[in-house]
Amino acid sequence: MISDLLATSAAFLLFVLVIFVPGYVFAWFADLFGFGRRSLLARFAISIPLSVGVCPILTYLLWHLSIVAVWSMYAGCLLGFLALFAHERQIWFSKFAVSRRIAIVLAIIAGWVVLGLFCLVDLQIGHRLYYPTAAYDYTLRTTITSAITRTGIPPQNPYFFPGRHFLLRYHYFWFILCSLVDQLGGSLVSARQAMLAGTLWGGIGLMALVPLYLRFFQPKGSVNLDRRMLVGIALLGVTGLDILPVTIIAFTPQGMLPTIEWWNNQVSAWITAVLWVPHHVAALIACLTGFLVIRCAPLSTRGRGSMLSGVVAGLTFASSVGLSIYVTFVFAIFLAIWLAITILKKNSWDAFVICVAGVVSLAAATPYLVELLRAPSGGSGSFLQLTVRWFSIPEVLLVLLWPDSAGWPEHVANGLFLPLNYYLELGFFFKIGLMQWKRMRSGNDFFQQKELCGFVMAVTSVVICTFVRSGVITANDLGWRGFMVAQFILLIWAAEMWDDGLLANRAASQQAVTFGRDRRGLLIGLLVLGVAGSVYEVCMFRFFPLISDHLVLRKWNFLSPDLRLGDRTYALRQVYETLKKKLPDGAIVQHNPNAVPGDMFYGLYADRQAAAETSQCGVVFGGDPALCRGVVARLDDLFEKPGAVEPGRVDPICNELSIDALVVKDTDKVWTDKNSWVWKKQPVLANGYARAFLCGRQIAR
What we know:
This protein is mostly helical. The protein has a domain at 565-700. 63% of the residues lie in helices and 4% in strands. The protein has a 4-stranded mixed sheet. The longest helix is centred in the last third of the chain and has 30 residues, at 519-548. It is globular, with a radius of gyration of 26 Å.
């Protein structure tokens, strides 16, 4: 645990070179948002989201030339930053005034880093080790980050190797930045630790975006900005009313849920989104940053300034394509609608900058899109499917009252319950949306209102994520992640209403009359429940695997089938980390591919290519299913069929499948047969939960 804390902290500091310095230099030279005239804290808030938006696509394109070109760009940015620092050293050392509210924001950021570190690293108690609840999601991201470090750009699918590599088919741009930190950290920082540090920076980037939108997107501008910023950042800790159904479910046979989101088709809490899917949050940051650059373009010198703003925005949109195709899809639809509105309103400069951004983004993202189309994949299903957002309550009622109700009755029921669905998922922010709608509707000219842009952005997100879903995998990533666009606008509106006296009593604020005094108690109750939901999420994220080792709970497939998860994780991490020291980067390390949903320990700790990660070989990320079946059949002989393979046949099978090392766990069927090859062949590493064997090419060496 201490090793994780130290290495992840080191990776966090190294990320400054990747996720802060470039944005600072780009913003200064392009004078985005009047960068040279802003305070240092404002510059920090601009630099981080801009780096998130611009660096992934530039790194991707330059890496196609060579890794030297990539490091040359970052070295140039560092030299530029040092030159600017020397030139403006008086500003850095004499004008760094911190108000009380800004000090609170900095304390919140520091608190987030400490909390995030504690949540993300392995929790060690003696010789027991517990990964966080989201570890299964992190297995994929760790192996992708490691694959980028090993194989470069474009990366190879780390989950499947039938004697040759297949291009990775995934939105992996966030893990490019994590890979750079992995490389910078050398032996001190692993791919997983670099990725965990990236998650921390994703949260900081989201916080930085809040004051930027309050300052440059909202009509109030700089009025009461410190207070509005503090409220907006604090509201990131508020979610919907999920705590109510989750508490009810806890007293049913279903039992305690490992995350507050799994009771329904989720609208993720911000803490859930950042901790579970930082790459989707990074895409949101990139899209919103690019659009803010467009919105502020008319403040620049028209012509050259607008063109430059369009280019920068286009690069951020291109990055978002590779960060999350789902968030980008929603935002692209919004941009098309907003372009039509700007043309109708005869805002020619806004329309011009949007068009420039569109052309640049398409040109920059084309190599990646071609790569996706070129990579063979064993995935099935269409990218998008029409639907009505699924809701657990009518689904349960239909099963009880109308067992054969699949099809249109299900969609009708989900449609009728949509208001309740969103009220439970959004809670406090649902009320904010209704109040904003009433305020805008009561205005004199709805089409000319300054809040129209945010309204169109939110409505576009809600409509798409309600009636369209992603179809490539069972999880509705489009509906879950694309909804973050609407959630962010709702948060910004909430911060503005709070500043207008949303929770003030009638005597304290005239605006309280506008909002309605009778709503104050309800809103406070919704806020309390929303905070309680986020607290539950943090606790389960960190402690649910630990709890599962001590209480009789439903055995989720990402945990242990018995009460020895902590001991087993400690033992398997030891084995894999020792193997990493013994094996070259290009080695093939194979586990039993039949674990469901996958081998957690391989994904988190191996940092090596597998012949087949699961029984499906991960071909959805690139590969041929026909080749997969042959590889898995041979691996089944080794892991699933005691007595099927004599000790002398292990090395020929390894040679046939290009495998360099085998890792057998105590949960594998072959382990239980004391006459199997596992107990007759000499391991290179062994403990009570795993035995590792060098084989194939490694024996020859």
